[in-house]
Structure formats: C-alpha cells, structure tokens
Amino acid sequence: MTVARSADSVKAVVKAYDVRGVVGEQIDAEFVRDVGASFARLMRGEGAGRIVIGHDMRESSPGLAAAFAAGVGAQGLDVVHIGLASTDELYFASGHLGCPGAMFTASHNPARYNGIKLCRANALPVGQDTGLATIAAELVDGVPGFDRAPGTVTEEHLLDAYASFLRKLVDLSGIRPLRVAVDAGNGMGGYTVPAVLGAVPQLTVDPLYFELDGTFPNHEANPLDPKNLVDLRKFVRETGADLGLAFDGDADRCFVVDERGEPVPPSAITALVAERELAKEPGATVIHNLITSKAVPELVAELGGNPVRTRVGHSFIKQQMAATGAIFGGEHSAHYYFRDFWGADSGMLAALHVLAALGGGDGPMSELASAYSRYAASGEINSTVDDAADRTRAVLAAFEGRATSVDRLDGVTVQLPDNAWFNLRASNTEPLLRLNVEARSPEEVDALVTEILSIVRG
C-alpha cells in the first residue's frame, strides 16, 4: 500500500484530461510513482501487459518518467521506454505497439510545471470519467501493493518509424519546392521536425528555436497566444518562406502562418484538412468543436460530409471520433485528430496536409487559406470573474430579445441573426470566463466583444 494523500491535493493535480502541477510542490517522484502504480493496476485489470513511456525536454521529465516506470513495474507490468518524444509520437508508439502509454509533459505550461498524458492501447483517451477519477481515488486512499515479480524495462527508439508512418499517410512526392520556416519554441518540434520534414527533398526548412530547452528562453511554447507568434511572423518575412509552422511545447499542436507573416486561423486549417480527407472518403463524418468557425460545418456539408459538433476538449473529440467512425476532427486550439492515426491528434500530420495542399498548387498560402475563411472571429478572450454563473446569466439577459437560439452543450452558445454567434464558457480550473465571438465582419465582432465584456467585467 502506498502513502495516502488529501483529496484536495490530488484534485489540484489530477485534471479533467491529464495530471499536471508544479514540480516539487504539487508533484514529485513519489507522487508520480504512485500514479504509475495506479495506472498499471487499472490497465492490468483491462488485460494490458506493458506500458510505453515517453517524455519531453523539461529538466524534470526523465526523473519523473523513471519514477512512473518504477510504479508500473511494481505492479507487475513491463515498461517500454522511448525516451525523448513529442506527444503525438507517444500516441504513435501506443498504436504501433498496441499498449497503453504515458507521456511526461506539461505541454505549453511554464518550466516549473510537468505532468502526464495517459492513454489506453491504440491511443484511446484516459480522462476523468475513463480512468483518472479511479486513479485519483487510489492516490487518496493509497494504491494497493502487488505480490508478484516486478515487470521489466526495455528501451526502443521509434522516432524514425513515427516519421516514416506520417509520411506514408500524406504523399509529398509530387509537390513543388517549398521553403518552410518552423518555430519549435525550444520544444519537441525541434526533435521531430528534422526527422519528419528533413527527409522530404522538396522542402527547405528554416529552423527557429530548435534547441531543446525546457526553460523556454525565447518565448512560451504556446502559439495560441499571439505574442508567441511574433518571432515566427518576422522570420517568415525575413527568409521569404512560403509559410511558417509553430509547434507548442510537446509538439502535438501546429499553427500556420502565411507568406506575409499573417496567422491562419486553426478553423481554416480544419476546413482545409477536412476537404482533403473527404476527398479520400466521400460522405465521411468530420468532428468539430463548438468554438470552430461556422465555415467548418458549412464546408463539410457542402462537400457531402457529415459534420458533428462536440464540446471543447480532446477527450470529447476522441470519444466522438470513436463513436462515429469520423475520418477527421479539428479544434479551434489547433488540435487535429485523424482516424488514420488511431483517432489521436497530431500537429505534424496536419502540417503535412497543409504542405501537400500548398505544394500541389501554384498560389501562395494566403490565397489557399482565404478559400476556407468565411467569417471574422475574436479568438478566445479570458476574463477573471468572481461568479461565472452570475455573469453568464447577466449576458443571457442582455441578449434575450436578440438571440435566435441558445444551447448549453459547453457553457452557453448564443446564435444571433446574420450568422453571428458567441460562446461563453467557465474554466474548469480557474476563475475565468472564456469568450469566443464570430460574425461576418471584424466590425461586428468588435461591437459584440465590447458589449459582452462590458457585462462580464462590469
């Protein structure tokens, strides 16, 4: 039996989708060892015999991964350690080896954080309702011991296999020569991009911040924040690149910048990839979360596909991918999910689709992206509030006479005349309200944002 912990301390770290906290304060080797033991017990009960483990470039990651492996081994399961990896490489390993996986990363969070993304065999998600609640309960009560022989630990290098697998999914052999500027943000993209793109002779890759450094000395590895795209936008213009790619810390998300240095909305990338996937399988289902542009379901329907709307969050998308047999799914946060990739997300695979689409034509990236951008959007705007429910009610009251419909799939989504809409969602972990607005013009978006924020922020 392992040590018992307070429910509050465990709840602060075991989130809806993963385990994440400040190293040395909220998580340490002992805590992670017990997470490993509990996860192993859960997977052993489902018939698993081994677990694959990977980690990012953070200073704390190798030690925490080793502690997790010790917990797994103590429960009689074997460990396959792939070492440095992006999160989507870990998902590849889970599918390739047919076993559950654990990825040590805190994604785009600052250097003092670390965490664990868990999955079942074939990259099936482990979320609050599919395993994390069970693990949390055992961390509070103490993980029962195991009286049989400990498992073994082996090492396996899968980077080349991962890169080869992705390139087989998207054929780049016939594209025109392209110059690609890539900002890895000192994260795992600096490890995976050379392996994947470096083997494509038509591509010239201009690297920015490829040095693996978990202190993130140049900028946060979070391209969703516009300030972290400033360097790439400038770099694209300086190098004359055909496009720019920016990856987050664990390189499972990819953002695109056109040849002018202008960011391409993730919704446009979702629509672009959806069109390519529907060309392979007409009539297939495409998942989109409720924050993506209306252009996505419109285009999917126009192409004869079946658009399915879901809540925000990778566990919801992955569940819907599995339930519907969807060929592809996309989120506003630049997570892109592929049936051909075990239903898991891969920013690198999305990047290959963009390169194939751009390299298969003669026009610039800005022209390509414009075909998938029909509306203006605010992006996600966060407001700190004391009572999210009260502020949401006040906003709904203000729009009561103008709303054509209101739904509560995830927060509140208010439909307005002329295809305008907004979504207001409370954060699960912070005292924040998150606002997204879309309308036909930037002026309409600005007016709605101003009106809504005046109510939210008082």
TrEMBL record:
SUPFAM superfamilies attached to this UniProt entry: Phosphoglucomutase, C-terminal domain, Phosphoglucomutase, first 3 domains
Cofactor: Mg(2+)
GO molecular function, one term: metal ion binding
InterPro entries found in the cross-reference section: A-D-PHexomutase_a/b/a-I, A-D-PHexomutase_a/b/a-I/II/III, A-D-PHexomutase_a/b/a-II, A-D-PHexomutase_a/b/a-III, A-D-PHexomutase_C, A-D-PHexomutase_C_sf, Alpha-D-phosphohexomutase_SF
Record-listed E.C. numbers: 5.4.2.2
Enzyme class: isomerase
Keywords for this protein: Isomerase, Magnesium, Metal-binding, Phosphoprotein
Family stated for the protein in its record: Belongs to the phosphohexose mutase family.
Pfam families the record matches: PGM_PMM_I, PGM_PMM_II, PGM_PMM_III, PGM_PMM_IV
Species, as recorded: Nocardia aurantia
Protein name in UniProt: Phosphomannomutase/phosphoglucomutase
Superkingdom of origin: Bacteria
GO annotation, biological process: carbohydrate metabolic process
The Alpha-D-phosphohexomutase C-terminal domain, residue ranges: 380-453
Signal peptide extent: none
Domain Alpha-D-phosphohexomutase alpha/beta/alpha: 14-135, 161-261, 267-375
